[in-house]
Write a structure and sequence with these properties.
By secondary structure, the protein is an alpha/beta fold. The chain has a single domain, classed as Spore Coat Polysaccharide Biosynthesis Protein SpsA, Chain A (Alpha-Beta Complex). The chain is built from seven helices and nine strands. A seven-stranded mixed beta sheet has the order 5-4-1-6-8-7-9, sandwiched between helices. Strands 2-3 form a two-stranded antiparallel ribbon. The longest helix has 14 residues.
């Protein structure tokens, strides 16, 4: 079984301009996840898909062993679903299983990625894997009705049943599942928990400061 790790990277970012190349703790943001993937047992190939010549050149210079694919014109732009990009790559590349993550997940470790690969390959009757972050807090719908608690019983938040947030860190699926569904997950994914200290996603300026502080805690 050949497993290919996919890292899609756009040149344009609306909320944080140039974020994929922006320095984080002294290194371009994309280097953190690519290095983690290269160090993961079970990952056979790492492929970066991009619409940016600068990103392509920087990736090739930093990681010559990584394959860089030029994103076709019909899949470029801010409103292209990631499902379409992953399905295109699954059809274009010869591999049995595909793992997709983002350059904006710099805190993911090789150990966590490796465990996700093992869970996907293990028993359970699932056809894919999606990472989630458990959240224990008091949530409400917009109309004021509670989602996961009784407002009349003020229990401890740590005792609440967790809600599972899709954190966009990891998706794993076999090639035939992706091609059949045209999605990066199948009909019956296993939910793979990742704690917030590792699952932080870079979406806003504030996220850079938080991720940098969390990375600093790992450095002796």
């Amino acid at each position: 079984m050949t497993l290919i790790a996919l890292v899609p990277m756009k040149g344009h970012s609306a909320r944080v301009p140039g974020k994929n190349l922006r320095p984080l703790a002294g290194r371009p943001l994309f280097e953190w996840i690519v290095e983690a993937l290269l160090g993961t047992i079970g990952v056979d190939r790492v492929v970066v898909d991009t619409d940016s010549d600068e990103i392509a050149q920087r990736v090739a210079a930093a990681f010559p062993e990584v394959e860089v694919h030029d994103r076709p014109e019909h899949l470029r732009g801010d409103f292209i679903p990631m499902h379409d990009i992953v399905a295109h790559l699954a059809s274009a590349l010869e591999g049995d299983v595909f793992l997709q993550t983002h350059a904006t997940n710099p805190l993911l470790t090789s150990g966590t990625i490796g465990r996700a690969i093992e869970v996907h390959a293990g028993p359970g009757g699932h056809d894919s894997l999606m990472s989630v972050t458990p959240r224990r807090s008091r949530f409400y719908f917009e109309n004021g009705s509670p989602v996961n608690h009784d407002p009349l019983v003020l229990g401890r938040t740590q005792d609440l049943p967790p809600l599972l947030e899709e954190n966009s860190n990891l998706y794993v699926a076999a090639r035939d599942v992706i091609l059949a569904s045209r999605r990066r997950i199948g009909a019956n994914p296993v939910l793979f928990p990742i704690g917030p200290e590792e699952a932080w996603d870079i979406d806003e300026e504030l996220d850079f400061f938080i991720a940098e502080a969390l990375l600093a805690r790992r450095t002796p």
